[in-house]
Each structure stands twice: as structure tokens, then as C-alpha cells.
From TrEMBL:
Pfam families listed in its UniProt record: CBU_0592 (PF26604)
Residue ranges occupied by any CBU-0592-like domain in the UniProt entry: 9-83
Name the UniProt record assigns to this protein: CBU-0592-like domain-containing protein
Transmembrane segments: 6-26, 35-53, 59-76
Key words, A-Z: Membrane, Transmembrane, Transmembrane helix
InterPro entries associated with the record: CBU_0592-like
Protein's UniProt keywords contain Transmembrane: yes
Organism of origin: Pseudoxanthomonas gei
Length: 92
């Protein structure tokens, strides 16, 4: 009597473990909350949990993980924009 997991369940479990790892590393001071690694871990974690919903849909989890992924994308964009060298204006 073992647990049988479909491929999408394994992806969801992996996503959950990634979210927990990101949170642990943040709390342990090993990652910065504004760092790209933390944000990517959160993005891929949310995508993994969203993939798990292919097996059995859950609206609450969908909304949570969709928002989590969107916020992660925003953070990634913000981080990448802040790393660009400032452009100089020819009129300045």
C-alpha cells in the first residue's frame, strides 16, 4: 500500500521543496530577499505547484501560486533593471 504519485505530483512536491529551501536560506541569512537566486527559487517553486494542479484543480492554491509567481516575476524584473548601468542623457 504505497503512495502512487503522477508526474505532476512530483513536480508539485519539487516546487514545494524549492519554496521551503528558499525560505530556509533566507531565514538562515544565506540568501538576500532581493537577490535573483531567491526570486528564481520562488518563481520555479510556484510554477511547480501550479503544474501539480493539472491532476486536481484547487482554486485557492491556484490563486496563491499565481500571485506568488507574478510577484516573483516583478522582483526579478526589478532586480535586473537595478543592475543595468545608468544611461547618460546627451543633454545632461
Amino acid at each position: 500500500m504505497g503512495i502512487e504519485l503522477a508526474w505532476n505530483d512530483w513536480v508539485g512536491v519539487t516546487g514545494t521543496l524549492m519554496a521551503l529551501l528558499a525560505f530556509y536560506l533566507l531565514q538562515a541569512g544565506r540568501l538576500s530577499g532581493t537577490g535573483i537566486v531567491y526570486q528564481l527559487l520562488n518563481l520555479f517553486a510556484s510554477l511547480g505547484v501550479l503544474v501539480s494542479l493539472f491532476g486536481k484543480f484547487n482554486l485557492a492554491v491556484f490563486l496563491l501560486e499565481g500571485a506568488w509567481g507574478a510577484i516573483s516575476l516583478y522582483g526579478i524584473g526589478r532586480t535586473l533593471r537595478s543592475r543595468r548601468p545608468p544611461t547618460s542623457s546627451p543633454l545632461a
